[in-house]
Amino acid sequence: MDTNSQLFIFKTDIAELCPNCEVYKLLNRHEGVQQWNIDTDDVDRVLRIESATLSALEIISIINSLGHECQELN
Amino acid sequence: MRIRDADKEQLVKSKAIKQIVQDGFQGFSMNKLAKACNISVATLYIYYKDKDDLIKKLGAEIGHNFFVNTMKDFSPEMPFAEGLWVQWRNRSAFAMEFPMEVACFEVIKHSPHAESIFAESTHMQDFKESMKQFVINARNNKELIPLSLEVFWSVAYGPLYILLNFHREGKSMGGIPFKLTNEIVKEAFDAVIKSLTP
């Protein structure tokens, strides 16, 4: 992991993920996102994001804007 | 910034091994694991990307320990009986010391994760190469009768693993109480050597 980047962990309702999904496309091309993945098998559909520039709130609003719930896990 | 904690990581690994052995992959989940470790799901996701990532890392670590331990004091140049005895000793010592890890590794080995774990392990490749060379040397030195690979493996190691299974279950056929001793291992080993040597 990049020393400047932070790891954020969220609970979401993203049950399915495919290369054509909006979430997939957006997170892949977002400059602020270094790495990301979603554990769609887990009940919490955990989204993990590594970013040096984004805040948790910004990530939540990005995911919300795509029609999904997103809540930071602590 | 989230920080990793070595003790917590160790706890996560041992609980994960226990859950995989008891419930298999289907019954095993990140949420259940977090609860068993008394940590938040988020903490678990600091260590691992997802369930598959955890299983792969766990398998790679157990595999690494197994291969390193199995190769202790062993060389493919050893006389056949001596080398096979070192293998028996190392393998049984590992199984006795880490029964949960061995049981977990068995589950992982028979899963779709095995291929990628083994492909990435150089220890596994070295181990396979050494074991192959050991058998080739034994054949060249006329210390081993010609056998197909699977039959050789079954005869050379099968008895040991069956005895270790009895030991783990604490009983043998028909529920007879059983505890593996050095004498029993030696008795089985002598029978194996007798059947494998010309």
Can you walk through the features of this model?
The complex is a heterodimer of chains A (74) and B (198). Chain A contains 2 helices and 4 strands; from the N terminus they run E-H-E-E-H-E. Chain A is of the alpha+beta class and 74 residues long. Chain A has a 4-stranded antiparallel β-sheet with strand order 2-3-1-4, covered by helices on one side. The radius of gyration of chain A is 11 Å and the shape is globular. The two termini of chain A are 20 Å apart. Chain B has 2 domains: 1-48, Arc Repressor Mutant, subunit A (Orthogonal Bundle); 59-196. In chain B, helix 1 packs across helix 2, helix 2 crosses helix 3 and helix 9 (149-169) packs antiparallel against helix 10 (182-196). Chain B has 198 residues and is mostly helical. Chain B has 10 helices and no strands. At the A-B interface, strand 1 of A face helix 3 of B.
How are the SSEs placed, and which strands pair?
The complex is a heterodimer of chains A (74) and B (198).
Chain A: E1 6-12, H1 22-29, E2 35-39, E3 46-51, H2 56-65, E4 70-72
Antiparallel strand pairs in A: 1-3, 1-4, 2-3
Chain B: H1 6-27, H2 30-37, H3 41-47, H4 51-70, H5 80-97, H6 99-109, H7 114-120, H8 122-140, H9 149-169, H10 182-196
Organism (chain A): Flavobacterium rivuli WB 3.3-2 = DSM 21788
Protein name (chain A): HMA domain-containing protein
Domain HTH tetR-type (chain B): 6-66
